Amino acid sequence: MGNERFGGHFFPGLYIFFYGLYQAIVVSKTMIANDSPVHLSNLPKNQKRCSKLWKIAFGGWLKIVTGSLLTFYVVFCLDNGMVLINKETPPRFMYPHKWQHLTVFIFLILDGCVDVMSKNVLRQRCVVLERGSMALGIYVLLLLLLSHVQVSSKVELQVHSLLILVVFLLMLVLTAELWANGSFCLQLIKNFLFLMMGSWLMHSGFILFRPISGYPWKDDDIMFVTTFFCWHVMINALCLLGVYGFSSFWHRCYCPSLRLIGSKEVLYLESSSGTFYGLLPEAEQQDKDDQALLLSESSSCGRA
């Protein structure tokens, strides 16, 4: 049972951490290239067409695959399967933690489906629908976390209380994004909170179920839980800064020719048609919409 609960903390935390890391890389590159007319269409057309099906909704498909794998893990890790109510008299609900985990993973799959539908199925991308779907998933996660803790020790209560704090702050940021029309400031805070939630979930699995010393934590060690959490704040902040620094270095050292090509293409397209998006093939329209969305959010943040 301890190994199963360890996996229920470690593997979702691993996914959330890498998801936040991926989003941090995307946002950092967009921030750095904000003043540069580099677009995704500057890549060779044959390369774009070969990778088009995977790049269109990479985040959405990642959510669907990860949510499905985690769902299979929860369902099949039990010897008797996921039983909701036993056959005893009087009947009782079974595996409350597992059913809460399963609910969160199902919402993750639905969030991925919304992303894929918005980017690939709808005739026009609906960003508000994507953000609302993610916010709804975090609302559900926070609601389940509030009833998830079965207080067996002060250490467990403190670990989950700090996790609830991170999820609550993330809920506020995602809610603000629905009305703030997106900004790099909110995106950076959101990515930082995703990194915090992922790394803390992974560490909490070791604290509660696989302590490095091999002995369970005592209630007297509760102060070290908060201390380690503060270390996570510092490490994830440095990680976010490192991603931005590496992206800046890569952009300055390895992309000068790309910037020149991009500027020439933009001037040519604007002079020949007056509408940049009008000359793009339909198969490439989604990539341009994504880039235009990020650039418009950047300019709105700059004006603010």
**Number of β-strand runs:** 0
> Strand count, sense and closure of the main sheet?
none
Overall body shape:
globular
Q: Pairing-aware structural class of the strands and helices?
A: mainly alpha
Unreliable residue runs: 35-45, 257-284
Which bin fits the share of residues in helices?
over 70%
- Beta-strand percentage range: under 5%
List the total number of helices.
10
Distance between the termini: 51 Å
| Count of the domains | 1
- Mean pLDDT, to the nearest integer, reads 77
How would you spell out the order of helices and strands? HHHHHHHHHH
Keywords: Membrane, Transmembrane, Transmembrane helix
Organism: Cricetulus griseus
Subcellular location: Membrane
Family: Belongs to the TMEM45 family.
3D architecture notes:
This is Transmembrane epididymal protein 1A. InterPro entries: DUF716. It is found in: Membrane. Its main location: membrane. The chain has 304 residues and is an all-alpha fold. 75% of the residues lie in helices and 0% in strands. The chain contains 10 helices and no strands. The N and C termini lie far apart (51 Å).
Give the key terms:
304 residues; mainly alpha; 10 helices
Helix and strand layout, with pairings?
Layout: H1 2-32, H2 45-55, H3 58-76, H4 96-121, H5 127-146, H6 154-180, H7 184-208, H8 222-254, H9 256-273, H10 285-303
Helix pairs in contact: 1-3, 1-7, 1-8, 3-4, 4-5, 5-6, 6-7, 6-8, 7-8
Would you kindly provide a brief summary of this structure?
The protein is mainly alpha-helical.
